[in-house]
Design goal:
- The chain has 60 residues and is mainly alpha-helical.
- The protein starts with a helix and ends in an 11-residue tail after the last helix.
């Protein structure tokens, strides 16, 4: 969970960026491009979600 307003804003900007990227491909009219963009975004999100070490761990 975000701890402060800056983290919340960063998350919202990331989400907005994702939507804009999908929208750009959809406007081109090629649904294959939209599907490719979604697959790429899912991979990027998973990398962040399951990164090692996790963001929540504190460094000594």
């Amino acid at each position: 969970m975000p701890n402060n307003e800056k983290e919340i804003n960063n998350n919202l900007f990331d989400q907005l960026t994702l939507v804009e990227r999908i929208e750009k491909q959809a406007l081109k009219g090629d649904m294959n491009l939209v599907i490719e963009e979604i697959e790429m975004l899912k991979k990027e999100i998973n990398r962040k979600l399951y990164q090692k070490p996790p963001l929540t761990e504190t460094q000594p």
